[in-house]
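Homework help board

Subject: predicted structure for assignment chain

Our instructor gave us this sequence and asked us to write out the predicted structure in token form, then describe one feature. I got the tokens but I'm not sure how to describe them. Can anyone check?
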Amino acid sequence: MEEAFDVGARLKQLRLSRGLSQRELAKRAGVTNSTISLVEQNNVSPSVSSLKKILDALPVSISAFFAGDEPSQPQPFYRQDELTDIGDGRLSWRLVAARRPDRRMSIIHERYPPGADSGEEMLEHDGEEGGVVIAGQIEITVNGEVGVLGAGDAYYFDSRLPHRFRNPGREECVIVSASTPPTFSDAGQEQHHA
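My token output:
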């Protein structure tokens, strides 16, 4: 299995490589100075939406943040321990082929524990996304329309519409999703579910 990813050290490395103080990064990201400090010290695990705000201010994509700087050689198969987890510690979003150069879509194995949510803020980004619920149930809000989907149900929508994901059930929800373009690899742009 993968070693735990050091979010704090990676954020600090990226911030320093851009010559930014914690205060300047916080200002650009619209978060408090203490938030940046706590994340860099690994004293707090940021939500995906908070991490996205911070990374957008650098700008660095969530995929690049977790994948590091080294692209990998294209390969056709990926074992579960080769997927890059871009979740927030509560939500698990495991990205297929995160380091593949010239990737044109994002495929994600998502896990939402009971009560988990993509965040209070509605998400919007370029592209389209779709997925199939494998287990459990998910409540998806798209442009004000709410649907609760169960195992075998699916969704597909224009990602520019405001959207949000929430698990209202008592069991874990598992989804396999795809989005295009691969916003998890385009630095500085909005991220899928983030």
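Reply (TA_rk): Your tokens look well-formed. For the description, you could write something like this. The CA atoms of residues 143 and 157 lie 10 Å apart. That's the kind of observation they're looking for.
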